[in-house]
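Notes, p. 3: input format for complexes.
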Amino acid sequence: MKDPVTGLFDRQQFLHILEQEINEANEHRTTIGLLVADIRAFSRINRTHGYSCGDRTLQAFADILSRICRSQDQAARIGDNLFALILPGIMNSGHAELAAFKIQRLLDVPIQLEHETIHCTANIGIALCPDHATGPDILLREAEDALQRARQADQPVYVAETRNDDEISDVWDIELELQDSIKESRLHAWLQPKVSLTTGKPTGAEALVRWDSPGRGLCPPDVFIPVAESTGFIKPLTTWMLNSALRLSSGWTKQWGELEVSVNIPPRILEQPDFSDLVMSTWELWKPAGIRLCLEILEQSFTGDTASVFSKLKTLRDEGIKIAIDDFGTGYSSLAYFRDIPADQLKIDRSFVQGLLDDRANANIVSLVIDLAHRFGLSVVAEGVEDRKTLAMLQKMGCDSVQGFVFSRPMPANEFESWLRDYRGIRSPAAVVLAK
Ligand code: C2E
Ligand code: CA
Ligand code: CA
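Output follows (436 residues plus calcium ion):
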């Protein structure tokens, strides 16, 4: 789709093109430059000269990008005043910098509108594939980080930091090894319990992926999820996790009543048109008795096309699937969320929970978030609870349930089954959480 104001590609189309170009470049071992540019103080242009001048400034900026494009380059508007330029087949970062400086030179000439003259300046961030990333999401993130650095240093152009050869070859290795991990049964779904603070009973578990890598041993997700996200392997991985979580939960004891099994769904998967079908077909396949499926969605999922994301989540909720907002507090939250978001649960990120006892500000935030969530009918899970004092404090604040080392670290599926059968609650002077 084209952006109606500038006629350039819009964000969604841009991501699609970037992915295709990167696949080509990875296959033929060529280099792509990605430029991300924003017009400085654009909101001031809107405020001082009016929105139609703002629009015409965006059009003039789009013209500049089109003027410097070679036939194989592609320009897009990917945010309000954020533009991107894909430069396939360049030799090195110098070529991308050259393009960036050409843009800056063209901006030296003030933009002449009907009644006004606009002096417009821009910051530009640059990242290269494969030098800085080998997948679209991370490449875009690297270019946006470079843009942020350009802004902070008040510099017209900034190139992402180059990773050393070892780091790059490590990413290539992980990428290659991951390809066969499912076939070779090297992925494992570990489980970490969630416990209700009102009944003291387990409410279910979050499924967390582990990778038994041939060369590195058992790897935590932080090492390979970013690589999986940048290569497209995240889709088979998420499908595998959904199936595994539902298969494993069918063997859980029924003594605690209905339990919930949660699976992490990254933004990239949520964006895909067949996402709801994927979840529904997996759910229909397993439908374990006494189990509810919960999808943990990051706040970052709501920064793009929210209408489409909301509508998918609503469809799934109508089918009885629960939605949790994960890592709450770390993304770009807006209060408007609470009104519109089709979700059941909010997970407060552990960075807030862990400072709860020593930091009044954190305690205030957690307490406010609990109240706010309750007002909008969401239940609250606190993540990363490591000790009983924090547990007691959360109980006092009205938090509904917790997940953390205080009950158990994530564990292999068979250990979780035993944990669930043998669980009796915990009792200490500071916190009483007893299974009733
Ligand atoms: P997350 O979704 O926030 O998962 C919770 C993480 O917090 C887990 O780390 C868990 O081990 C850790 N944790 C739980 N309780 C405590 C505690 O009391 N203290 C501390 N310090 N940490 C605690 P893990 O398993 O290493 O996962 C890290 C992240 O990797 C996850 O964060 C999630 O974003 C991602 N991840 C894990 N599994 C999957 C998956 O299957 N798919 C996707 N897309 N991402 C996954
Ligand atoms: Ca999670
Ligand atoms: Ca989390």
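The first strand starts at residue 31 and ends at 39.
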